[in-house]
Amino acid sequence: SKGKVDEKAIFKLFSLGVITARDEWVYDEKEGNLEGKIKFLIEVYNSEVERLSGKITRGEVADNVYYSIKWTRAVKNDLAKGKSYAFQKNCISDCLYRPFLKKKVYFSHELNEMQYQLPMIFPNQQSENVVIAVNVGNKPFNVLASKCLVDYHFNGDSQCLPLYRYDKDGRRGDNITDWALKQFQSHYQDKAITRLDIFHYAYAVLHDPAYREKYRLNLKREFPRIPFYDDFRKWAAWGKRLMELHIGFEQADPYPLKRIDKEPVTG
Q1: What does DSSP assign to residue 18?
Q2: Quick one: pLDDT at residue 263?
Q3: Quick one: angle between helices 195-206 and 232-247, nearest 10?
Q4: Considering 32, 154, 227, 263, which has the largest number of Cβ atoms within 10 A of its Cβ?
Q5: Residue 118 in contact with residue 151, Cβ under 8 Å?
Q6: Strand partners, 13
Q7: Strand 143-146 with 27-28, pairing
Q8: How confident is the model at residue 136 (pLDDT cuts 50, 70, 90)?
Q9: Contact 107/115 with Cβ under 8 angstroms?
Q10: CA proximity to 13, closest of 146, 102, 118
Q11: 8 A C-beta contact, residue 143 and residue 134
Q12: Is there a contact between 10 and 198 (Cβ–Cβ < 8 Å)?
């Protein structure tokens, strides 16, 4: 999904999370394992291109390929066109697969069924960005932040609202609109409010239990709307700290728990 430039919205661009349609092939906890799986997949695919290209029609692909790998519509179309694949190590990126579960993903247009606008948010592994991932729909409303790619089912049906966006040449620009900046500065009579402050403010508001209850029905069917709460700076500070905790979960100290083992009850 992509926001319209003339919309009165906080975020200009947004995107669904990545849909791979072959999670077992393009995700792994270890980079070495993932690289091995991708190379095997590409080797099988290319051998099928060599064996079948020019000899069958697009409609006959499904009945003739070897199903030792995961085929999807787009990959079958590429085979019918005689297109070969090549492994690219720089396609391996970090991705939050589920809440607080990070994996390596092979982020490739060829082997991901849908990437949506994510290449404009994380064009490469080195791209600096942060997204607020929200789910809109019948699943319980959920909000989490990420500084890397997220899966479509990361925290629901995840819509990513990024702090920055990148153009086709890799240049980074602000994703929070001029309109939003003007609205916040005007409402709070504070010209020192920045786009990053608004980003943090929105994150805090979206986690407010009173907000979630008041707009519960709206959050099931439309993008969240952000109200003006009193004491902007307090909310922005809360959002900043909360985001740091969520993004830095791997460095968080374990919660002190005491384990007590009990003998099983018999008889």
Answers
A1: B
A2: 86
A3: 80
A4: 154
A5: no
A6: 2
A7: unpaired
A8: confident
A9: yes
A10: 118
A11: yes
A12: yes
